[in-house]
Every structure is written in structure tokens, then in C-alpha cells.
Amino acid sequence: MRFSEPFEQRFQEMASHYPTRRSLLVPTLLYAQDEVGFLSDEVVAEIARRVELTELEVRNVISYYSMLTTQPRGKYNVQVCTNIACLLMGGEEILDRCRLKLGIREKETTPDGLFSLEEVECMGACCWAPAVQVNYDFHEHLTPQKMDQILDQYTKKGTERRR
Amino acid sequence: MADVNLTIDGKKVTAPAGTLLIEAAKSAGIEVPSFCYYPNLSLQGACRMCLVKIEKMPKLQTACTTVISEGMMVTTDSDEVRQARKGMIELLLGNHPLDCPVCDAGGECELQDMTFSYGAAESRFIDVKNHRDEQQWSPVVYFDRPRCILCYRCVRVCGEGMDVWALGVQHRGVSSTIVPNQEDHLECEECGMCIDICPVGALTSGAYRYKTRPWEMKHVGTTCTHCADGCKTTLGVRRCSTGTELVRGDNRDKSGINGDFLCIKGRYGFDFAHHEDRLHQPLIRRNGRLTPCTWEEAFQLTGERLRQIRDREGGDAIAVIGSTRTTNEENYLLQKFARTVLGTNHIDHHRTADYPALVAALAGHPKLTASMRELFEAPAMLLIGNDPTRQHPLLAWQIRNNVRLHRARLYLVNAQPIKLRRQASSFFAIPAGREAEVAAFLAGQDSAVAAIASETSPEAWIRWRDQLRREPKLVVMFGSEIRGDAVASLIKFAADLPEAKLICLGDYANSRGAADMGLYPDLLPGYHPVTEVGEFHKDWGGVPEKPGLSLRQMAEHAQAGKLKALYVVGANPVEELGLDPFVFSQSFVVVEDLFLTETAAIADVVLPAANAYEKSGTFTNTCGDLQLVKKAGEVTGTKSDFEIIVRIADAMGVAVRKLVPFGRGSRADMGQSRGAQSGEADRHSVWLEARGLEPKMSPFDPMAILDEIQRLVPGYDVSRLHLLAGMDQHTSLSGSGPGTKHDPSAIMPARDDLFSSGTLGRYCRTLNAVLENGHKLAAEEEVAAE
Amino acid sequence: MADLVSHPDEVKVVSKRFGLGATEIDRYLELDGYKAVRKALGMAPESIIAEVKDSGLRGRGGAGFNTGLKWSFVPKQSPKPKYILCNGDESEPGTCKDRLIFEHDPHSVIEGVTIAGLAVGAHVGYIYIRGEYRYLSEIMQKAIRQAYARGFLGKNILGSGFDFDVYWHGGAGAYEVGEESALMESLEGKRGIPRIRPPFPAVVGLWGGPTVINNAETLASVPHILLGGAEWYAKLGTPKNGGTRLFCLSGRLNRPGVYELPMGYNLKKMIYDVGGGMAQGHTLKAVVPGGSSTPLLTREEIDVPMDFDSLMKVGSMLGSGGVVIVDDSACMVKFALRIMSFYQHESCGWCIPCREGTDWLKKTLTRFHSGGGVRKDIDDLQYLSENMLGRTFCPLGDAAAMPTISIVKKFRKEFEDHLDGKPCPLEKAEAIERSPVMA
């Protein structure tokens, strides 16, 4: 199991921050997921080894945090907030639009593997609602039309890279 | 610690500082309900059932996490508290499937009881309950998530108690679930503690599920028949067409030395009793083939032949092999029968520990043995050799939990990196077979360090020994690696310490009892040499004074054509000790056993015996703790070894009362003089039956022999009242005979681990299912790896 | 990157460097950066604590405990290392202020953490940033590197002989981790399950050492207090409610945004002056005054000073500063359902009342909203919420129960209207289970 150079560097650096190996777990899982796409069995085994835990303990932790997943997802994970501030500003319409446009429901991935959709909780964009995060990028003050454009941009970006 | 005074429900309560409120209330007879609180496991504060009102606190507080303080005013029974409890139960029942009629736990479910005591009669919940399919995690563990109330007891007992950590919690919120370590299955010791500790029917046992309703069973707390630790196991029994069936084993009765603990063998290893290969009829060899016969025929033939051989050839032509799984009374009776009726000292058993050497070395330091309970309280422990996690599960539990709960120091010396090193404050690895040198070094022989200091420097060994010498209270445990002179060395070391005690580790349920009861060719009960004329000679009216033959010598004797008869009770020396069966072809062989073992196969007479779960008596565990064995099951066609021995003696024409002093000392009128109509005799026998006892007026009453044991065997003079009440009694070796030095090679460790149990283990379906499943998984893993 | 807004009534303390490029250390130093640490190095630890205590600074995470007092609970002598922990796991619905602090003024947090370290004698601080804020953790990492490079962190800071290390730490999506003991569990690499208290973090915290744990905004306020003085800061606010705070105005307002206003600023004014009033075509129905866990205020209740004590008096809480304006287009049943879905999803599942209560309430509200309600549901919602209130392992249960109780009580009519088949004002009735019941 190999991770990228920046990952290894960060891991090494972070290892010096804590008195226990275990403390590396949560951030390391997230960075590993960003590289591999999801927390595969192989990743779980590798990280368990690195932080000196059993795989069971690592899985216990993974399943607790909503950003971590052991299932493959699309290249772009569209996370639509529908919590109160976004709800009041039309967050559900944005979610409906995403469903329609991508042809999938929450926790599903488009057949081309480009998008997955998720309904998420408050992401700290209440004053700029409704908001969506695509992977780590915030998109705020959305309308269904703007959402369409954003998805189009990602489609373009994703297919271009692939070519 | 200083005492703290507080008031609970207007009652003045005093308890030591540091006591949890829930325990202080319990001590005052006030029940505070809880699911997640469990003594000796970490605190959770999760179930919120124990909420109580504490004055000056705005919110209700959990009694399980609150430490008492001076002047605390607590209310455990107010409208507010009652409503809180009711509210919790109501919330729990929202998603809990009310499938109580088919749930294994129905009738002994804490949630049912709590609902009855504190819950609400009406249900507000009208939505669909969350569901998830039941999962099988191993041959013996099933998990039903919807029934789970997430008290985390299973997770804690597995991790904190067993140090196995095979269970985890995954997901969160209402999706939270208990999970096994291998995603969809368990890889663990299969001890079943998680099932036992589950307050509801979320974790159920593959060996028991859907077999019966709890109230259809009678629950008999008896002593386990497998390893030498002597756990109390509670057998659930039910009437069936062939007698009384054992349906379940668990540790419902927690009064035993094992408390909450039970291993896979204690829990599931009872099913050999109903194995299809179980013998139900005596067999006699006719025309070279073992053929069923009646008990009368079998007794007559055996009695006649043994008498003939004794009368014609002398006792020297007869040898007896006893058992490590029969009761003390049977063992005592057997050697008394051998010595006084057959006139032979050729009696031995499968030796797994050097108890005679222990006794010999203890001379002058009589009180140096520790009980299983004392071990749990010892501030320091030293273990040389053995792997208790696999061979002595209860001992391992005591050690682990003593370290965890009392911060006891554990010093380990072993040739293998055994699992208990995780609890050890020091672990010294030694080359295999060098345990005796460790003992010598401890005894002060500094030159011995050369043989053991391979991984640890001589200086470290010396520091280690100095540290041990400063231990104010130390329990020294040693396995069969330590024999003969090495035992003496250890005792020399221990005797110089302020307060050291020893535990010598044997392997089978009554290995210690067999030794104590004199199943030795040269030792009488209580380790008195046969050569020394004493109490036994007087009481029995003569004992052959020439030491007899050991097991191996018996075989040589037989080969030389000098052994005319061999009587084997509950042992399988052909398989376990590798005795050549053909050497006995000229001998008349009688075997008592449950199954047609390799040894029974060469017998001329095979007598189907009852097992330890089907009779009464006592066992002595390896520490010397004497415990009651209670009759639980019954299989038609079998007889206890006790009865068989008596019947053989009778068939030999012996006055049985000389062998079994029945009726002695208890001449109470039990109604016979007034005729059966009075009913008193019946009532008395019902009372005896309920306690697994035989009527005292019978020659088959083991209690009559127990009278004699208590009278004649040093150390066994314990409280009969406490014994009959099911309490363990430590037998001290003080007053024992001088013991002796045996050939160390006569000791052959059983080499059993968690899932095996000598010959008996082969007939335990559940143990084998677990073993096979383990092999299957390992094979699958191999394929996957390729 | 979030837009900034401004209003003349604002008193910019924590936000004074917003939009001024203070993420770069040089710019930060130009804007009085790290002066407070310098000053603190010359002060006795007790004086720092006294200054913070006197300033009336109260925890900006929601509980509103006096910060200086919290620091004073840390034992002077400790065999185990002490720690400072900055809670940047901002997740309370309606709240988006820490995000701006990390984005615009990361050094002020580092400075606040360092001062806290000086005050209690800790030598290590962690800044925990929620996993979703990836870009902010990158800004923070850069700021920490710069602070080390300039000698504001590390061995012998500013030649004082005092060593102090600050590290960042990232979460991975869990509201519950915002609870202080759960945050410590998370930082230790565990599931975010709160701990049994007592012992409190000030005595037994991270890895068993005494730990000060404060919200990012709280810590970012500390340097300003040391520079401006306790008296100045206290006077910005109302008695016992010192200083200013960041209010996140959201909902259908003309000018939503994060505004820094003095403590005790009138809510009505906040909505109609600062926030520019309701957007055209909308009228005010209710206000969530301090994040989703605080009891709602009706239109009639908004003439109230926004400080901890005043809101407590009207039966609500100042909370985390997330002021969510609920307009007339909102269905209160739906609103209650969305709040409960959130808490049901975020409950850690540890204790029975929260785990089962949130699930039950969510189910009931889902059914009720989709038209399957019965009259007794309304009372049951109240009853169940009350059964959770004050009885859960951590405050999350209260956070779920309190808004529900207030909505059912104050907007009972809307619930009854649902039963009577009146159209739901927000949308057509639909029953969509958005999150799986069991993952």
C-alpha cells in the first residue's frame, strides 16, 4: 500500500505532534480517503498497522464520522446542505435539482463514476445559503440554475481530465 | 478508606469513601435500576436508568457514575425519578421488537423485568420499528441487532474482562451497532461471556437458542468437569425421554469462585452427555466381541473374576487406574476398594502435576497454598511456565482482572510469549525447558542464572529476584514444567518471603482430588506413604504396605504376564498416555466409561458410567478448593462410578458397609418406623433429590464416604454446611503426610487448550463445531491469500 | 470564500482584521499582531487569568461559561502535561463565524491559544478544525508555519524562555465532536463519544492531562482583551456579558451575514437594521436566536437584548450566535422535522434517551408532516422531548428537545392545521426518508 509523497510527509510531521499514535487516526483516514477515493480494506489494514490499532478499532472510528466512507464514490461528491438556514433558502430545491440533473439519489453514484450525491448537515455557510460543497469546495448563494452551471463545469472538468 | 455518611431515601447510609452511589444504595437495600452499570466493568453512564435526585443538583444524576460524598441527600423514589425511569423504558421499547414469546431471553430478560417494575403499560409508539436481520457470528454466537439496547456490557466484558477485544461499536446514533472483529464473524475464544452478560436476547447462544423456555428448566449450579480450575457452571436441565437432559450451561449462579467468568468448555462442554455414542448398556466380551448384557450379568462376571484372580494370584496380579474426572468420593472409594478389597497398591492415575512433591516441600510451611479467590486479591503474582489463557482460563481471568482492578503486579517467566504478558509488569523469556533453573535461581542458587539469562541479563535477573523478595504478599504459580526438586526450590524461595503462597497447576477437573485421595501406588489419601502404618491401616483393618506399581510399571507387569486383571475407572490410558493395548491381552480388563474409548475397546467388561454432571460428590480444584458437584442430568442405563464400585464389591462378596460407612452417625428416624403413609420419608427424599443428594441410608451415598474423607484426610475437615450450601472451601495441606519424590517423567501434561478436553472433548459437539469452523475459516483465508 | 458585510453599529474587535490580508504574518504584525503575546509574557499567569475573568468574556461556543473562571480551574501543579484545545469544530446549524476567523485572522487564534497556555502553564495547544473546512485547515497550517518561523511558537518564544507548540488537527464530520469531551476523544483518535464528568477537562482532559478547551472565537478574543484591557472589553457589552460577539444572521433577510455587535444588542434591531429587514414578500414568523439547539422566539418575543442572561430570561439561549430568521413561508412542522433529523443523524448513540428519543421524534414528525399524524402525536412530541430533557449523557439530547418543545408549544396551531388537512405552507406534503434508518 503506497500513498503519495505529500501524504507521507504530512503523516511523518503529524506523528510528532501527539503523544500517542492513535491520535493520527482521524485526519489520516480523511487524507487517505482523498487519495484512494474511499477507505478500502487495504487502506484500513495499512492505517491500522501505522497507528497500532486493530482493524476493528479503525472501522469503529470510520463508521462514526460521516465524511469517511468504505464504499467507492464518484470523483465529485456533491454535498447539499438542507439544514435549517439552507432549508429556509431553498436547499431542498437544490437537492431536487441535483437528483434530477445527475439522475441519482443520495448515497448513489452516477454510472460514469463522476458524481455522487449526498444530503449533508450544516456546513457553516448559513449566511450564504443555500450552499453546496463539491468535495471540499464551497458553492454558495445557489439557485437551481446556478447549480446546473456548477454541475456542468464539473462534468467538463472531469471528462476533460479523463481524455 | 474513611467512611462517608449520606442519606438515601431518608435512610442513613455509611459507606467507604470512593463508593459509587449505586453501590451505596445497594448496600442499604435500595435498588437503583441499571442496564449499563456492571460491577468491575468500566463506567458508561449510558442507559440513564439509574438517574436519581441529589439535593442541590438541578438535574437528575446517574447513580452509577456519582461517587458518594459526605452529607449527600439522595432520593431514588420520587415522581420525577419514576418518570425518568419510565421514560427510558418507553424509549427503549420504541425500537425493541416485542418478540418476547420467541426470544430466548424471555422470562429471564432484564428489560422485561424493568418494564414490569418501572415501565409503562401503554405504548405510544405507532411507527415502524427499525429492523436488521439477525446475524450468526460464530457457531455459538448469534446477534439480533433490533433487540440490542446498547448497554455495551458485551463489548466491555470481552475487552476489559477477557482481554480479547473482539467486539466493537460501529456507526452512530440509532444506527449504532455492536460488531464482531471480522466484520461479519467473530474470531475469539468463544467464551460466550458476551451472551451471558447480555441483559436482553440480543446475543444468543447457538448451542441453546430456541430449545426451551427458561422456566421449563431446573437450574443446577455444579462444578465444571473440564479443566482443573473448578468454575461453577449452572446447568439448565429438563425432563426428556431418556432421563434428564442438559439443555444449557451458563454462569447464572455467580456465587462460584469464577464469579462472572466461564470459558467455552464450562459453558458449552456439557453436550457430550447426550452424544449418540454414549454407552447405555453394559458390554461383555463374548466370542471376542463386546456384546450388550444386563447390569447383573456384568457385575456378577466382574465380581467373580476379580475375586478368583485375587484369591488365586493375590492382589499383586490386579491393577487399578483411576480418573481425574471422577469425584473425590469415588476416587477415595476406588483406592480403598483396591487396597482393602482387591488387596493391591497397584493404583495410579494420569498425573499432570507434581502434587506429592509440593506436599513434601511444604512440610514445615503448611499454610503456603493459595485459593482461587485469594489469587484475585493478591497484590503480586509470579507465574513460571504454563499458559493459563489456554490451559487455565479461570486462573487467567483472575490474574488479568487482579491486574486491571487492583493494579496487582504480575511477574511472568515463560519460554513462550504467552498472552498474559500483556498484563505483566515484567516478562522474562527463558529457553524452553529451563523452568527448573528459574526455581533454583529463586531459591538462591546464583549459578543457575547462566541457563536462563539468554534474553535478559544476569543483572536484570538479580534485580528481578530482589524485587520479588521484597513483595509483601506474593502468589507463586507454576505449571507442570516445575517438578520434583524444582518444586522444593520454589517453596524454599517462598518460605523466605513475608507471605508467599503457591498454586501448583494440574490439568483436569479433579486432578488434585485424585492426588489428594491417594490414587498413587505409594501414597494413601492425604499423601501418607503406604509404608507407614497409621490411621488408614487402623480404620480399614489393614492395607498392603508394599508400594504398588505406577502406570508405566503396570504395563511392564502386564507384558511380563504378571498382571491378570486391570480395572480402569474413567480413564483412557491407551489414548492419553500411549499405553500399548496389546500388553493387556492376557489380562481381564474392566473399564468404566461414558464411551467406547480406545481403552474400553480392549476391555472384557465395559460398564456405562454417569458423568460428573449426573452425580453428586465433591471436586478439588488445582488450588485445593473443595467444591460440591451436584447432580443435574440423568441418562437411563448408566450408573455412577460410585455405585458401580460398590456393586462390584458386593458381587465379590464384601460386606459393603465396611467400604461405605452408610448410615453411620445419622440414625434419625426418617419415617420408616411409622410406615410409608406418613410421607416423611418421601418428603425427605424429595428434599435430598432437590439438592442433588442421595438418601443417607443408602450404600450408594457419596456423602457417607465424605464423612470418612473429612475424618481421615488432612485438610478436608472443612465446614460441611458451607460445602453443601455450594460454597468453595480451601483445603489446607497442613497435616498432610510427608508426600514423596516421584519420578518426574511420570507427569504427562494434558496439552489441552481452550477448545479441547482430553477424550471427553472429542464428544463435545459444540467444541468441535467451533474447532471445525476455525479450520474452515483458516482454509478460506489461505485460499484468499493465494 | 465567504463574503463580508458591514454595518455602522458593528464594533469590530474579533473581526477587525477581516478582509485586511492578516493571514500573512507580516500584515498581521502591522495590525498589532502578536503584541498581546508579548504583553502576556511579561505578566504573571494569575494576572492573565484575572484580566480575562474581569473582561466578562464568556464562552462563544454556546454554553457561555466565564472563560477566565474556566482557566482558573486548571491545577497549577500537574504530573501530566497540560493542554490548550481550540474548538474549531463549528457545526451548530445557523453558525458560520469561526469559519471567518480562520479564513481572515488565523494568527489571532494562535495568539489566543498561546496566551491561554501562558495563563495555565501549558506548553502544547491544538487547534481542531472540522473536516469540511479543508481550505481553512490549510490556511491555519500555513499560519502556524509562519508563527514558528518568526519565533512566536516553538522553543523559547520571543526569547522569553517559554516553550509553546501549536498544532492543527482535523475532524471528519461529526457534530457531536463539538461537545468538549467528545472533541478530546476525537483528537485522541476515537469515536466522538463524550466522557463521563466529573472529572472535568480542566482537571482530566486530553490524554488525562488538565486541558483548557475554548471555542475559536473565545480564544481569538483573548489577545484583544489583553491589549485593550478587561475594563474596555467588559464595557463593550452588558454586565456579566463582556465584549462583542459575532452574530450570524441567516434566513430571508435583505442583508444576511456575520456581524460583530456588542453583547446585549437588541434582536429586533439586529433583524431590521443590521440585517436590513425581511426580504421582499416575506414576513417574520420566528427566530432561532443562537443555533438550532436554542428554543425559538416568536415574532412577539424579539424585542430582547442579545446576551446570555437576557435570553435565558425569555426562556431561550444565546447559544453559538447563529441567528436564523424563520419567515412566513416556512412550515413549522417541517422546520421541527429538519431540526430533529439533524439531531437524529448526529446523535452519537451512546445513551438511550438521545439515541432513541431523536429517532422516535424524527419518525413521528416525518409521519406527521407527510399527513399521517394523529392528534395525540402533538402531545406525544412534547412528552417525549420532555423525557429527554436533562436526562441525556451530554447536552445533545437537550439540544434536540429544547427547540422541539418550543416549536410545539408556540406553533401548536400549525400542527393542528396539518391534522385538519390545511396545506403545508412550505411545500406539498411528501414523506421522503432522506437518511437511512440504519446505515
Would you kindly provide a brief summary of this structure?
Chain A is an alpha+beta fold and 163 residues long. Helix content of chain A is 49%, strand content 11%. In chain A, helix 2 (25-36) runs antiparallel to helix 3 and helix 6 (91-102) packs parallel to helix 7.
How would you describe what is shown here?
The complex is a heterotrimer of chains A (163), B (786) and C (439). Chain A has 163 residues and is α+β, with helices and mostly antiparallel strands. Chain A has two domains: 5-64, Arc Repressor Mutant, subunit A (Orthogonal Bundle); 76-162, Glutaredoxin. Helices cover 49% and strands 11% of the residues of chain A. Chain A has seven helices and four strands; from the N terminus they run ααααβααβββα. The relative contact order of chain A is 0.11. The model of chain A has no long low-confidence stretch (mean pLDDT 96). Chain B has 27 helices and 31 strands. A seven-stranded mixed beta sheet of chain B has the order 15-14-27-26-25-16-17, with helices on one face. In chain B, strands 2-1-5-3-4 form a five-stranded mixed beta sheet, with helices on both faces. In chain B, strands 20-19-18-21-22 form a five-stranded parallel beta sheet, with helices on one face. In chain B, strand 23 (523-524) and strand 24 (528-529) form a beta hairpin. In chain B, helix 9 packs parallel to helix 16. Chain B is globular and about 90 Å long. The termini of chain B are far apart. Chain C is an alpha/beta fold. Chain C folds into three domains: 25-236, 3-Layer(aba) Sandwich (Rossmann fold), CATH 3.40.50.11540; 244-327, Roll (Ubiquitin-like (UB roll)), CATH 3.10.20; 332-431, de novo design (two linked rop proteins) (Up-down Bundle). Chain C is 41% helix and 12% strand. Chain C has a five-stranded mixed beta sheet with strand order 6-5-11-8-9, with helices on one face. In chain C, helix 2 runs parallel beside helix 6. At the A-C interface, helix 2, helix 4 and helix 5 of A face strand 3, strand 5, strand 11 and helix 13 of C.
